[in-house]
Design a protein that fits this description.
Helices cover 65% and strands 0% of the residues. It has 7 helices and no strands. It has helices at 5-28, 39-50, 52-67, 85-106, 116-144, 152-157, 171-193. The longest helix is centred in the middle third of the chain and has 29 residues, at 116-144. The relative contact order is 0.15.
């Protein structure tokens, strides 16, 4: 794997934008933690437009920094004001998956020919990826902090029921499905039209 200076710049810019989107969402929507977030869709788009290597590195770096932020609304583990290395690794890998899948899908699509079918496919992948993210994130939380659960199955079960909030954590999967359908098409097209930007399609 050989990264050029432009690739490193793209990763740095995307990681910064993704982190701000994730952290800003926590500040702006502190009353609705885990419902809406725009970090993962941006990671996905970075892979879709610039390839799986840039997408994966962007996702890994973004989640690594994001999980280290000790802010109560940033993510479920932040209230502990510490982070287990186990959970950190799990979340970094899950972040990278968004970029990798986006990279593979980017080879099949022309962002200048975006239509309703493309939006529907993005919604599908938003659902699949976020479902995996939410369930495996719960498993990661169990592996990192087993004292909070009777078993890994309880951790998974609690993903689907409202416990501390009036909605279950899995609501994130459904909101992300809509976010992917609405945001991926215009973001992909806007990046393609940006002067001087060379995407994986170029």
């Amino acid at each position: 794997m050989h990264l050029k200076a432009k690739d490193l710049a793209l990763i740095s810019v995307f990681s910064a934008v993704c982190f701000v989107a994730g952290y800003g969402r926590g500040l702006a929507l502190s009353s609705l933690p885990g419902v809406f977030e725009f970090m993962t869709v941006l990671i996905f788009v970075s892979g879709l437009m610039f390839g799986r290597v840039i997408g994966a590195l962007n996702g890994a770096i973004t989640l690594f920094i994001y999980m280290l932020v000790p802010y109560p609304f940033a993510h479920p583990a932040a209230f502990l004001f510490t982070i287990s290395p186990v959970l950190l690794i799990v979340m970094v890998l899950l972040g990278a998956v968004y970029g990798i899948v986006g990279g593979f899908l980017g080879k099949r699509h022309n962002p200048m020919k975006i239509n309703a079918r493309f939006a529907a496919e993005m919604a599908f992948w938003g659902f699949v990826l976020t479902f995996i993210y939410d369930v495996l994130g719960s498993v990661g939380f169990y592996l990192a902090y087993p004292i909070f659960y009777a078993s890994v199955w309880e951790a998974i079960y609690l993903t689907f029921i409202p416990l501390y909030m009036p909605y279950p954590p899995i609501i994130h999967t459904f909101t992300n499905t809509l976010i992917f359908a609405i945001l991926v098409p215009p973001l992909a097209k806007a990046i393609s039209n940006f002067p001087g930007i060379k995407t994986s399609k170029s």
